[in-house]
Design a protein that fits this description.
single chain; alpha/beta; Rossmann fold; Dehydroquinate synthase-like, alpha domain; 4-stranded parallel sheet; 14 helices
């Protein structure tokens, strides 16, 4: 049974297509003048399936790093496109993970006031989450995702065989992001991913089903609130803390694993504030801890965490805005005052819980 799905967007509807050979779809889709924006690692790993295509079509190979995803580092890509005659009616084809997606989508949204783009996600994080939703995010200086637009692709092609060449940490990062959708969805979906988690790491068909369901859950939110003004904001569950952890570890902890910690911090504070029981928190933590594995937070200082949280773009005034929970499927927006009590709770978490 096909897991293909369509996403409704104010800009235009677009499909997510599950394919067994991305190169066949790519060869059939490309048009004269299109430019492929390609992760250097993907270029190396899939040379045998890309060489013929790349010999025919213009392409840019980029290093998919947080440094390259910065505002300043986009200049050379924009210059290359303009100097090589890229036109408004031509398209960018992104092949890579979330960083390649963000770079390509952001450029597509601003170049000539908007050009078309397509996406071939190559990481589990991109396939199970970021490929849909229209968001583009670019770093500014050392601050993550401070610039961005909403600009969906014309088409997304998911090929799970890309996952065969990913390191374990990248798989766990993608799983962490997907877990967050299953928790936001509620009891039934949480039990599913907790039950199928181990099998999905070994069985691609099980994983394919989890990816498709993750995208279905996200679709339900973004079709109600594409521009992240209301319902969609609960999808930031775990992310304010997760982005701070990424920044403070210089991205040594991958995004989805940082989000796994972030969800546990949100749940820990939800217990302290009387919103959920410790029993429920531990039930969820069993899965989250399996996903973050050997990573730890004990080297993070509480003052640094507070300072980084304070720079989150979702904040208003002096209070820190985060998503907490009253239970599975019951996430809600909350404002935290970083007083002595909150500081003590975070300090205790970092020293005794973040491992």
């Amino acid at each position: 049974m096909s897991e293909d799905l369509w996403i409704h967007s104010i800009y235009h509807d677009y499909p997510v297509l599950f394919e067994d050979d991305f190169s066949k779809r790519l060869a059939a889709e490309l048009r004269e003048g299109d430019v492929i924006v390609l992760d250097a690692n993907v270029r190396r790993l899939y040379a045998n399936r890309l060489d013929n295509i790349l010999s025919t079509y213009k392409h840019l190979v980029i290093e998919a790093t947080e440094e390259q995803k910065s505002y300043v580092q986009l200049e050379w890509i924009l210059r290359w496109l303009i100097e090589n005659g890229f036109k408004k009616d031509q398209r960018l084809i992104a092949i890579g993970g979330g960083i390649t997606q963000d770079i390509t989508a952001f450029i597509a949204s601003i170049l000539y006031r908007g050009v078309g783009w397509l996406f071939y996600p190559t990481t589990l994080l991109a396939q199970g989450d970021s490929c849909i939703g229209s968001k583009t995010s670019i770093n500014f200086d050392r601050y993550k995702n401070q610039l961005g637009t909403f600009y969906p692709p014309a088409e997304i092609v998911v090929d799970l065989r890309f996952l065969n060449t990913l390191p374990e940490s990248a798989i766990l990062s993608g799983m962490g992001e997907m877990i967050h959708y299953y928790l936001v969805a509620g009891e039934t979906d949480f039990r599913r991913i907790k039950t199928e988690y181990s099998r999905s790491l070994q069985n691609r068909e099980v994983l394919r089903g989890l990816i498709a369901r993750s995208l279905e859950i996200k679709r339900g939110f973004i079709e109600k609130d594409e521009f992240d003004c209301n319902e969609r904001q609960v999808l930031n569950y775990g992310h304010s803390f997760g982005h701070a952890i990424e920044s403070l570890t210089n991205y040594g902890i991958p995004h989805g694993i940082a989000v796994s910690f972030g969800m546990d911090i949100a749940n820990y504070l939800s217990v302290k504030l009387g919103y959920i029981s410790e029993e429920l928190r531990q039930d969820i933590r069993e899965l989250l801890a399996r996903n973050w594995g050997f990573f730890q937070l004990r080297d993070i200082e509480v003052d640094a965490l507070k300072a980084t949280l304070g720079k989150d773009k979702k904040n208003v005034g002096s209070e820190v805005r985060v998503i907490l929970t009253r239970g599975l499927g019951q996430m809600f927006k909350s404002q935290l005052t970083m007083d002595s009590k909150m500081t003590a709770w975070l300090q205790t978490y970092l020293q005794s819980e973040g491992a």
